[in-house]
Amino acid sequence: MKKTFVLDTNVLLYDAECLLSFDDNNIVIPLIVLEELDAHKRRPDEAGKNARRSVRTLDKLRELGSINEGISLESGGTLRILSSTDITCNFPPDIDMATVDNQILAMSKCLQESSEEKVILVTKDINVRVKCDALGIKCEDFNKHRIVDKQEGLYAGVKRASISQAVIDKIYSQGYADLEDIPVDDVYPNEFLVLKDENSGQGSAIVRYMGKENKFRLIPEIKSSWGLVPRNKEQKFSLDILFDDNIKLITLVGKAGTGKTLLAASAALEQSLSTNAKYKKVVISRPVQAVGKDIGYLPGDIYDKMAPWIAPIRDNLRYLFGDDKDTLDMYIESGKIEIEAITYIRGRSISDAIIIIDEAQNLTTHELKTIITRVGENTKIILTGDVDQIDNTYLDSVSNGLSYTVEKFKEYDISAHITLIKGERSALASLGSEIL
User: According to DSSP H, which parts of 93-196 are helical?
Assistant: First the structure.
């Protein structure tokens, strides 16, 4: 049986191609939504771009027939734009009909009462979904980019397994183990395995699955990176993949204080500024809250304008330079360390560089696609973030661009991922992250 989906404005602002996501079902867009799109279309960020694209898509569909009576879509469904005057029904008097959200709720309620089809309001606004439940309106989130059901299901990059001591001895003697030596299911390229002796539990080894070789390689000892010494096994895993020339996309996820950005920065400096440098520069960026928002009102050049947003990264860089501000500024002025605004990264092709995108959990899938497709020859990109700290209104821990990228790339040798667990910033920071 076909369904009727009523779209809230935030769905169109989140994904301009959402009209193609409802198969052969019918779509209704309240007329007031177009008013809201018009108000957002001049915004310079991703939401503004989606508002403009949505309006252009609707204008193109309008050529196919009457958008009020219903336009047939290629998927087999229909699209209609309805005014509140087109339908009537009883709505609770204590609801303020002057607000746009309540007008959309009223239309959904009226359609539900008058239609034989199942009517569902689709919105990314949590408060609207709560109101729907209170009013008896069927409601859903727009889950096109919801990559897993729960955060706990996200790929971690690490597995644990119990094997015989003989296999552990073999790993240390020859430096690797064959696939048949370690009976694990669904192992992904560049996934780490923490192996324990199945009998005594004393013997152990840590290996990484090399997909192309179809082997588990014993990870080498990395004592330091630009003077930074790893403090736990997840940090050792991170440095192992950060220094692998064959891995071009690295994602590091973890709570505050686990060392994500510091590890990325240290590896980038080591590989770009040392005597045996493999890359010519380090490019660093971080989403401006409301990503892509115009920063031209701040004084100075691009570095001055980005300074408030990249202050956390600069803190890490100063720490790695031994608090030597002059040396850090020298590298920035010479272009060896480049601060870039995500707003202006579209159209670039960045070669011979290491790119660090901090706080990537606040980016949408489309924004991360735009960034990743800027990667040129001999370039490595590192995405860091905490999926528990989402500041973007339309995203959550399993629908943000970082989580989506982790899940989509986990099957490819060119990428690797680690979820860092243990906080190392300070005892207070670790406790605060845990209990607050």
Answer: 100-114, 126-135, 165-174
Tokens 């409601």 label which residue?
139
User: Rounded to whole angstroms, what are the CA distances from 230 to 116, 174, 251, 300?
Assistant: 62, 25, 17, 37
Residue 295 has pLDDT above 70, yes or no: no
Cα–Cα distances in angstroms (integers) from residue 354 to residues 18, 51, 243, 334, in the given order: 34, 33, 11, 16
- Give residues with Cβ within 8 angstroms of 52, minimum separation 6: 41
Residue 292 has pLDDT above 60, yes or no: no
Residue 218, CB-side half-sphere exposure with 13 Å CA sphere: 15
Encode pLDDT of 76-93 as tens digits.
Answer: 899 999 987 766 666 777
Q: Is 280 left (phi over 0), alpha (psi -120 to 50) or beta?
A: alpha
pTM for the structure as a whole: 0.84
Q: Which two tokens stand for residue 56?
A: 């252009």
8 Å CB contact between 328 and 317: yes
Q: What is the pLDDT of residue 291?
A: 41
**pLDDT confidence bin for 377, thresholds 50/70/90:** very high
Residue 294 confidence (pLDDT) above 60: no
Pairing assessment for the beta strands 204-210 and 215-218 based on DSSP bridges: antiparallel
Helix (H, G, I), strand (E, B) or coil at 417: strand
DSSP 77: -
CA distance 231 to 380: 24
